[in-house]
Design brief:
The chain is an alpha+beta fold and 482 residues long. Among the domains are: 217-302, Serine Threonine Protein Phosphatase 5, Tetratricopeptide repeat, CATH 1.25.40; 311-365, no CATH class; 368-475, no CATH class. Helix content is 52%, strand content 14%. It has helices at 20-31, 35-47, 54-68, 72-85, 90-102, 106-119, 121-126, 129-140, 148-163, 167-180, 186-197, 201-214, 220-232, 236-249, 254-266, 270-283, 288-296, 310-324, 373-389; strands at 330-334, 337-342, 346-351, 358-361, 367-369, 397-403, 410-417, 420-427, 438-444, 459-466, 469-475. The strands form two sheets. Strands 5-11-10-9-6-7-8 form a seven-stranded antiparallel sheet, with no helix packed on it. A four-stranded antiparallel sheet has the order 1-2-3-4, covered by helices on one side.
């Protein structure tokens, strides 16, 4: 008879002594741009035994935090420490060059970028180092202001912040851009967008007027935005002026034509409004905004929904079949959104206001766990970091869908073709400081995660907030139970 074997302990690891907790919290804070929190987390990580090779990544992350807080000397000091330990790391030298350029230490930045280009010419081409050097030399010669590099650095970030709807963050960076070079229009334009999305129409108008005065020629998007905001401020006549100038720049721009119709409608010019919306339909017969406006004013019948595709028909047929397999279904509702799930079977997510908007997953069983509000915020921070840092070469599709208890749906989708982003869309607001009722994430990628063997990040996650208990549903088809 074989002797009995000792059973492995299932006691959870001591998180207080594990470097994993501060590392993940630091990454989450980094993704959410909570720079001070990230600094605290990475500093704690570096003080713990067992940091291993990740310590140099932690130093690089610290330098990023100091850079974004404009604490340039501290950022450079951290990078100097990394370079002493890893003199052949290209990312460290590249980060040093960017920090010097943002700090306005132009001559030193030129030397650092030239050194980088000499040592890693292929990476230099990928990262457009030649363009950075060209701009820095113009700054050296006094042809453009010293703050121009910082404006461009922030502009890249603002584009991502807009994609995920971080409007307070967009506003802060827009003001930094305006301070770095008050004559560049980009900061004023971004400020206008941030104010608009926060329903501060008068401030948006002031910002866009400032942007327009700084443009060398008429800028279509700025003019169109001014034309949109004027009716919100009971200035429809002024809207016609801005939109007319926008139309000269972009004669086939659908938003401009749509806003012209709205301005005319506000002025009681019904026939002119109808003409603008019909002109939009001649450019795009499927322009939903124009179709609905024409129906609202009684000029056209209700828009006819396009027929279901074969795939949609198949999915519609599956809806009742998947539900029928659930022996103990749980139903969660959030306004018009209904989630029906059985952890052993799968889930069905339906939108009563739009019957074609639904999700089916019949890949149970699920694992059910729990998550705190603080951990949820970190989770969403990691999601945002993933969207920025994800390995585009191995990524086919990224999709995030969030349902709030009292807010409209936020949706972010990004697809890649031949390593380049092909299509992207985002709607509504991504508020990371508030816990959503439903949160779904799908990532199809080969991105490895820290402190884990490289494994595809493939699966589905649904976050549920159901009083009195919050829970999280996770399905990871390629990761088995440990």
């Amino acid at each position: 008879m074989n002797p009995p074997r000792r059973r492995r302990s299932r006691q959870p690891a001591d998180q207080a002594s594990s470097p994993l907790a501060p590392w993940v919290h630091g990454l989450a804070a980094l993704g959410d741009e909570r720079w001070e929190e990230a600094i605290t987390a990475f500093t704690r990580f570096l003080e713990m035994p067992g940091a291993g090779q990740e310590r140099w990544k932690a130093y690089q992350n610290l330098s990023t935090c100091y850079l974004e807080l404009e604490r340039y000397d501290e950022a450079l000091a951290v990078l100097d420490e990394v370079r002493r330990a890893a003199p052949d790391d290209p990312d460290t030298l590249y980060s040093q060059a960017i920090t010097l350029a943002c700090a306005g230490r132009v001559s030193e930045a030129v030397v650092a970028f030239e050194n980088f280009a000499d040592r890693w010419p292929k990476l230099a081409r990928q990262r457009a180092v030649k363009d950075a050097l060209r701009k820095l030399r113009h700054i050296e010669q006094g042809e453009i202001p010293r703050g121009d590099y910082l404006v461009d650095h922030l502009q890249e970030q603002v584009s991502h912040n807009m994609d995920v709807g971080d409007w307070p963050m967009v506003e802060r960076k827009a003001r930094r851009m305006m301070a770095a070079n008050p004559q560049r229009p980009e900061g004023y334009f971004a400020l206008g967008v941030a104010c608009l999305e926060q329903n501060r129409y008068a401030e948006a108008q002031v910002a866009w007027l400032a942007a327009q005065t700084r443009e060398e020629v008429d800028d279509g998007p700025t003019l169109c935005n001014l034309g949109y905001v004027c009716p919100q401020l009971d200035e429809p006549e002024q809207a016609l002026t801005w939109l007319g100038r926008s139309l000269k720049q972009r004669p086939n721009d659908l938003p401009t034509l749509h806003h012209l119709g709205i301005a005319c409608e506000k002025l009681g010019q019904r026939e002119d409004a109808i003409a603008w919306w019909r002109r939009a339909l001649t450019i795009d017969p499927n322009c939903a905004l124009a179709q609905h406006r024409l129906h609202e004013v009684g000029a056209e019948p209700s828009p006819v929904e396009p027929p279901l595709t074969p795939q949609q028909q198949q999915l519609s047929t599956m809806l009742p079949l998947v539900k029928a397999r659930m022996t103990q279904p749980r139903v969660c509702r959030n306004g018009g959104i209904t989630l029906t799930y059985d952890p052993r079977v799968g889930f069905v997510l339906e939108d009563e206001e739009n019957p074609l908007n639904f999700t089916i997953h019949a890949g149970g069983p699920f694992r059910v766990g729990h998550i705190s509000e603080a951990d949820l915020r970190d989770l969403m921070g990691v999601v945002k970091l993933t969207l920025r840092m994800i390995d585009e070469e191995n990524t086919r599709e990224v999709a995030i869908l969030t349902y709030y208890a009292d807010r409209p749906i936020f949706n972010y989708q990004l697809r890649f073709e031949r390593k380049q982003p092909a299509t992207a869309s985002s709607h509504s607001q991504f508020v990371v400081t508030e816990a959503p009722r439903f949160f779904k994430l799908r990532i199809d990628s080969d991105l490895p995660t820290p402190y884990a063997a490289p494994a595809p990040m493939q699966g589905t996650l649904i976050y549920l907030s159901q009083p009195p208990e919050r829970g999280i549903l996770i399905n990871t088809p390629r990761l088995g139970d440990k």
